[in-house]
Amino acid sequence: MLRINSLLRSPFLQTLPVKHRVHYKFTPSFSSHVRTCFRPRKISLNPKKFFKVSFFAALTLFSATQTLALCAEERHEKYRNFINQHPQLGSLGDASKGEIQIVPNRMEEIEQKYGRSIGIVAENRYLKLVEDPVLFPSGTLGIYLRVIPANSLDGTVVGAAVIPVLPDGSIALVRSYRHALRNFGYEVPRGNLKKGEKPEEGAVREATEETGYTFKQLVYLGSMAPDSGLTNALVPIYLGIVDGQVNASPEDSEAISDVRAFTITEIREGILRGYLIHEKDGKKIQTPIQDPFLTFGLFQADLK
Predict the structure, then answer these.
(1) Are 36 and 8 in contact, with CB atoms under 8 Å apart?
(2) What local confidence, expressed as pLDDT, does residue 60 receive?
(3) Are the beta carbons of 130 and 111 closer than 8 angstroms?
(4) Which of 6, 32, 113, 276 is most buried when burial is the number of CB atoms within 10 A of its CB?
(5) Crossing angle of helices 292-303/264-273, nearest 10°?
(6) How many angstroms separate the CA atoms of 74 and 68, rounded?
């Protein structure tokens, strides 16, 4: 299939004279909005040659338009199939009832209005980025982004978290470097579930891998939505009663510098000021504590 970037670098188009520069615009019904201004070149062309160049330029642009139209059709069809094959992601909704309604039959109209592509715009083995065509309760058409974890497509929760409680009543936290934040932070051990794994099994596996602690009991505290405005992910939180310790075995992609125990008072004070304090090599170190899984779990534990 032809690619638009290579088409726009076509030698035929690059030889257009200065006085015949053109501002080309491909409508959103073919792609997200592609505008290109060609750099002028001071060249001289006789009328016959210019006619020949213009003919090939028009032919090239026609081919590009046809290719983009085909790409849009394929993207729209892939999106419709995705929605139909995964009803567990939720109903299409009804704007007349105050819901945000997904309207697959109005994709081209919405693309033309906003100049953005609709459908599965990016994906890898971990997640899919989906731009949904929607109708808001106000009657306005729009586009809403969803981040859909790949392991949520089989109807399971995506991960699990554990608050490890030691025999003396203190709570173990991992000091982990998070790439997205570009910083260290104290948090509870957590991670994604493996295919076919139950939440309780995944919770124990992740906690033992990251901390080295083993558990004699898990108490379910509740499930939280880390970001309901962006993703469908639900994560159950457990209170884990520690009964032993083995060697920790974090994954190669994890950056855990330390595992430390804090009293519940220290943790609550740390949450209020935004960081925990611990000593290392005679120095006091402040590390952020901003873990929503921890705060949700502690709140649930107080209620229970």
Answers:
(1) yes
(2) 53
(3) no
(4) 276
(5) 130
(6) 10
Q: How far apart are CA 286 and CA 278, in angstroms?
A: 7
Predicted confidence at residue 151, as pLDDT, reads 87
Residue pointed to by tokens 């970037």: 5
Q: What percent of the chain has pLDDT over 90?
A: 63
* Alpha carbons 50 and 193: distance in angstroms, whole number: 63
Contact 214, 244 (CB under 8 A): yes
Look at residue 75 and give its three-state secondary structure: helix
Stretch 142-152: mean pLDDT: 93
Angle formed at CA 135 by CA 132 and CA 139, multiple of 5 degrees: 160
Using DSSP, state whether 136 is helix, strand or coil.
coil
Q: Is the pLDDT of residue 65 over 50?
A: no
The correct CATH number of 159-303 out of 3.30.450.40, 3.40.50.150, 3.40.50.970, 3.90.79.10 is 3.90.79.10
Q: What is the pLDDT of residues 242-271, one digit of tens each?
A: 999 999 998 888 899 999 999 999 999 999
Q: Can you tell me the distance from the alpha carbon of 304 to that of 299, in angstroms, rounded to the nearest whole number?
A: 9
Which residues, including other chains, have CB under 8 Å from residue 286's CB and lie 6 or more apart? 275, 276, 277
**Considering only CA atoms, which of 140, 70, 145 is closest in space to residue 110?**
140
Give residue limits of the domains in the chain. Answer: 4-83, 88-152, 159-303
CA neighbor of 294 nearest in space, from 260, 262, 267 = 267
* pLDDT at 272 > cutoff 50: yes
CA 236 – CA 119 distance, rounded (Å): 29
Neighbours of 37 (CB within 10 A): 9
Give the tens place of pLDDT for each residue, 76-97. 999 999 999 998 888 999 999 9
Contact assessment for residue 132 and residue 147, using Cβ atoms and an 8 Å cutoff: no
Is 301 strand, coil or helix?
helix
